[in-house]
Amino acid sequence: MNHAAQDHADMLAQAVAYCEAVWFARADVFATMCHDRFFMTHTDGGALQHWDKAAFLARVAARKPSEGAASYQIMGIDVSGDMARAHLWVDVPGLRFEDHLGFVKLDGQWKLLTKVFRTLARLNEQGQVA
User: Fold this and answer.
1) DSSP string for 33-44
2) CB within 8 A of 53, min separation 6: which ones?
3) What kind and span of H or E run contains 29?
């Protein structure tokens, strides 16, 4: 596998790990995945909300893990040298979020640096768009 194909495969693996960590409320995964300067922004309703890495980890740790198979779709991966982007949606009970994730490659490892997200849909008890 050439270098570009390997980077794409590595980013796909990161995106899957991200979605599963959201679904199963795995703050420990994000503690490793996120860069120390990680920053996220929620864009719903025009009023921006922001969290740093510590606040994000606390939010994830406060949730109960979801049951069953993780519910998500990776819509796109783009790798350009030592930076990459993942576009995806991922569910937590009652909500579907659309995430745009920005990664940087440092010392051979992809680290999540930025997250911009919005609530894409409200879900019913069966996990379907309400």
Assistant:
1) HEEEEEEEEE-G
2) 30, 34, 35, 36, 37, 38, 39
3) helix 27-33
| Dihedral, CA of residue 20, residue 45, residue 122 and residue 35, to nearest 10 | 0
Neighbours of 122 (CB within 10 A): 10
Per domain, the residue ranges of the chain are 3-122
Count CA atoms within 13 Å of residue 62 on its CB side: 6
What single DSSP character describes residue 46?
A: G
C-alpha separations of 119 from 95, 102, 107 in Å:
7, 18, 33
Q: CATH assignment of 3-122?
A: 3.10.450.50
For the chain, 130 residues long, give each residue's pLDDT as a single digit of tens. 788 889 999 999 999 999 999 999 999 999 999 999 999 999 987 789 999 999 999 999 999 999 999 999 999 999 999 999 999 999 998 899 999 999 999 999 999 999 999 998 887 777 777 7
